Amino acid sequence: MKRIVLLLLAAALVGAPSAQASDVGFNLDLHIGSHPDPPFVVRERPMFLAPAELGFHVAVGVPYDMFFVSGSYYVLKDNRWYRGSSYNGPWQGVGPKHLPPGLAKKRYRDITHARDMEYARYKKDKHHYKGKPHYPQENDRGQGQGHGNGKGKKNKN
Q: What is the pLDDT of residues 30-53, one digit of tens each?
């Protein structure tokens, strides 16, 4: 890859006539392997529920698959994971190998099924809901709720 960039630069310099004007310049704007800003914005503060079988919080009533695990927020958008210290970013791309264990080891359909079932329980009787919702504050930096190991996993502390 370095060789290609160097060849392009050399070709541009060789092909350019000798600089006789002071306003001659060269600009190479090359983005290899980088990704643009995440294609989403979280405008409203989401509510998170914690299904017991997951061991972490899941956002409900929002158009994104968002999770709150070990003090960080995670979003799955277009088969790409993002992590942020606040529910509204800033977001940074993260590979699947760098997800918390509870989130990485669960199948996506199991997570969304647990989320949907928990949300149905919540909506059925909000005033007597026995779970623990998480309501982040504006620019919330996470409070370490939800360990991300999931039910049945033992912490090795």
A: 445 555 555 677 778 899 999 999
d(CA 5, CA 88): 36
pLDDT tens-digit series, residues 85-140:
888 888 999 998 999 988 998 999 999 999 999 999 898 888 888 887 878 876 55
Q: Are 133 and 47 in contact (CB under 8 A)?
A: yes
Find out whether 87 and 140 touch, Cβ atoms under 8 Å: yes
Q: Buried b / exposed e across 9-29, counting CB within 10 Å, b at 16+?
A: eeeeeeeeeeeeeeeeeeeee
Q: Are 126 and 47 in contact (CB under 8 A)?
A: no
Tokens 């007597």 correspond to 128
